[in-house]
């Protein structure tokens, strides 16, 4: 599956919520996501622009691989995800294989749907609030247009291409 | 979980079945197992004596890591296993991470239970038939005694410490 998404910082999530609701977007729900990112035993993910993540969410656990971003403007990338029966066990397997914990991202995510867009409002622990707009259709060019139009409506600008993990690690290093 | 097991070659699986049944062992069932083994991107599993395996069995998929054997007589080793929602997807994730397919083992496994022992009769494609006796209790010394006593009753001798994968790879190389 190809993923196209744009992420922007926002200092007023409450306003974004009311704008989404007034344009008739469907509020899907709010969940807490605990993400553990791993480093590769012999490859530098920060150089290859890949990621390996375990996500704990509402009693479920998923393992996801994210390939390098293939579009500068949006965050289009390859993503492969499976559900796993136990987060602790899959973490143990990864550690035995030489993958180490690179960082942890904890956030509360509120999801809205509007036509073929999914809008996520993320309140990230120790980092701040962000709006991620993702296109869930087949036509990538159409997806880009819809994302940019939604950004205009929500008065969002800028595309933070760094992941929450990178932002958190940069913050720790005082960058 | 620690696993203690012994594996012996057998040229008469039908006789073993009737012996198990006459001693009152419970026949749990027969399944087909398709196992895909992977090599590590920067570690030689044949040297470190580890294994990473995806198993497809009756519509289910599991991912298992097996650590080095820690007992010469039995095949005691660390094993961590999780159930995964999709075998093809987890295989794709592993390939993206640099793990390659090292081999495939297809077998029909018939499982019997007798007290704290699990006896598996494996008919392995391109290899032959084997009896694996595993102890499913807490007391490792007791487990070894029970396994050796069962081997005597079934007139089995020898402990094949090589995995089916190793045996198949050796056979291919004419060893």
Folded structure, characterized:
- The structure is a homodimer of 175-residue chains.
- By secondary structure, chain A is α+β, with helices and mostly antiparallel strands.
- Chain A has one domain (2-172): Hypothetical Protein Pfu-838710-001.
- Helix content of chain A is 27%, strand content 45%.
- Chain A has helices spanning 13-22, 45-48, 87-96, 140-153, 164-172; strands at residues 2-9, 26-39, 51-57, 60-69, 77-84, 100-114, 117-124, 128-135.
- In chain A, a hairpin with a 2-residue loop joins β6 and β7.
- Chain A is globular, with a radius of gyration of 16 Å.
- At the A-B interface, β4, β5 and α3 of A face β4, β5 and α3 of B.
């Amino acid at each position: 599956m190809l993923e196209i998404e744009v992420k922007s910082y926002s200092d007023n999530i409450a306003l974004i919520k009311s704008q989404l609701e007034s344009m008739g977007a469907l509020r899907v729900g709010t969940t807490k996501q605990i993400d553990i990112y791993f480093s590769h035993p012999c490859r530098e993910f920060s150089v290859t622009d890949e990621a390996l993540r375990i996500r704990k969410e509402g009693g479920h656990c998923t393992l996801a691989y994210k390939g390098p971003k293939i579009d500068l403007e949006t965050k289009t990338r390859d993503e492969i995800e499976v559900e796993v029966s136990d987060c602790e066990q899959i973490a143990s397997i990864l550690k035995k294989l030489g993958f180490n914990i690179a960082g942890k991202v904890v956030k509360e995510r509120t999801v809205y749907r509007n036509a073929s867009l999914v809008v996520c409002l993320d309140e990230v622990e120790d980092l701040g609030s962000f709006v991620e707009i993702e296109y869930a259709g087949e036509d990538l060019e159409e997806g880009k247009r819809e994302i940019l139009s939604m950004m205009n409506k929500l008065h969002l600008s800028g595309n933070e291409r760094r992941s929450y993990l990178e932002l958190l690690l940069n913050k720790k290093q005082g960058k």
